[in-house]
Amino acid sequence: MSVQSGLYSGATFLAAPILRYAMRRKHQKMSAPASRLRERFGHATLPRPDGTLIWCHAASMGELRAVLPVIQDLMSRRSDVHFLISTTTQTGAEMAEKLGDRVTHQFGPLDLPGIAARFVAHWRPNMAVIVENELLPRLTRHLSAKNIPQVTLNLRPSRTRQKLPTLAGEVLNRSEFITANSASLIDEAPQMGLSKSKYLGGADLKSSADPLPIDPVMAADLARQIGNRPCWLACSVHPEDDEIVLQAHEKVLQKQPDTLLILVPRHPDRAAQLATMIDVLSLKHMRRSSGQGLAESDQILLADTMGETGLFFAQSAVTLLGGSFGQRGGHNPWEPAVLGSYTLYGPDVKNATEAYEKLRKIGMAQMVQTADDIASLALMARKSTQKLDQVTQAGRALRGQIVDRILDLI
To answer: Which CATH number does the domain housing residue 378 bear?
Structure first.
């Protein structure tokens, strides 16, 4: 055990009561069912399904969407395979629970003493798939001790790996293979004591995903309500994005008074806070969750619902993706791109730098830094996916390799 591994084990052991308390508060805050809190401490609330079980751990919706094409391909090729999907968020849980009767969801277990053993003893997975950025030293060590193969998919940039390269290397070395969402990340391998041969490839799996679902009846109804009005979208908006988005829309309205902004907060429970900000600016809005139709006087559609993001991408020729005006690293640009929406983004997109750059090069994305920048581009009438194939081929090819390798391992 390395020094970094020992420090992690000791620190988390001593901090276990604090971490457990923090998790209880977090679980309650995200409105997750109180009866399912115990899952986070390794206590299963459902039986293990019979047959081959692959455990897939994805923190939230973004990570789950990244690996969803692989899950779907595996289920189509092996009818006897079931999936246990664990997430840390309620939104991720709701997404997983819509994937059919061959998928079981549990909240992800804390990486604390005793919890890993309890979790693995109940579920007895035939394989573990860790998605993107989760550093789980105890759980991965316990899987290795039980000779359960594990893989890491769509690894993305991480400050934790930079600060604790030895610990990260020990965890990643337990994977049979690794894929990264950018070929440049493979260059980190020597710093962590890994061979570059451990990596199966560097391409973003999110680029191979199918477009987000769109209900045709709801799409027709929304298009009817908007009519011929100009429309732009601000999606996955966080608190640090709010001000610049609303300032930009005020500027847009000065040029084109009948323009509609579809505003989608990353977390719908922030809708009340956003509604207050909109009212302070004396702008008129309608909350999607109210079920009411848009009025001609409404200047903002506050989309505080779940599962409709694809609908809004398809409706809007231009999308501003949030999470890029603070230090969050941005969100997945492939989702608007595959539905033809031109993507604007702020200065911080470190989570998917290569994806944004590829889309920028083919004329489907552009960085903006000010409200004036956004306002000048918000009403561009362009909507096309013609050039996407050339940048999504690598993701589709890697997806096929991953499925083949996982089937070999189980």
So the answer is: 3.40.50.2000
Of 178, 202, 226, the position where a domain reaches its end is 202
Answer whether residue 28 is part of any domain: yes
Higher-scoring residue by pLDDT: 308, 5:
308
Task: Write the DSSP assignment of 75-141 as a string of letters.
Answer: HHH-TTEEEEEEESSHHHHHHHTTS-TTEEEEEPPPSSTTHHHHHHHHH--SEEEEETT---HHHHH
pLDDT: is 209 or 368 the higher one? 368
pLDDT at site 149? 96
Using one digit for the tens of pLDDT, what is the confidence trace for 32-58?
999 999 999 999 999 999 999 999 999
147 and 80 in one domain? yes
**Residue 122, both tokens:** 């109940």
Task: Provide the 3-class DSSP secondary structure of residue 286.
Answer: strand
CATH code for position 130: 3.40.50.11720
CA dihedral 192, 193, 199, 202 (to 10 degrees): 40
**No. of H helices and E strands in the chain?**
16, 14
Q: What gap in Å lies between CA 134 and CA 156, rounded to an integer? A: 10
Residue 338 near residue 367 (C-beta atoms within 8 A): no
Phi, psi at residue 68, to the nearest 5°? -55, -40
Question: To which residue do tokens 């047959």 refer?
Answer: 51
End-to-end CA distance of the chain: 28
pLDDT at 403: 87
pTM recorded for the entire structure? 0.77
Helices (H), 256-294: 271-280
Average pLDDT, the chain: 90
Domain that holds residue 258: 216-389
The CA distance from 335 to 19, in Å, is 34
As a whole number of angstroms, the distance between CA 294 and CA 297 comes to: 8
pLDDT digits (tens, 9 = 90+) for 252-298: 999 999 999 999 999 888 999 999 999 999 999 999 999 888 999 99
Q: Are residues 106 and 7 in the same domain?
A: yes
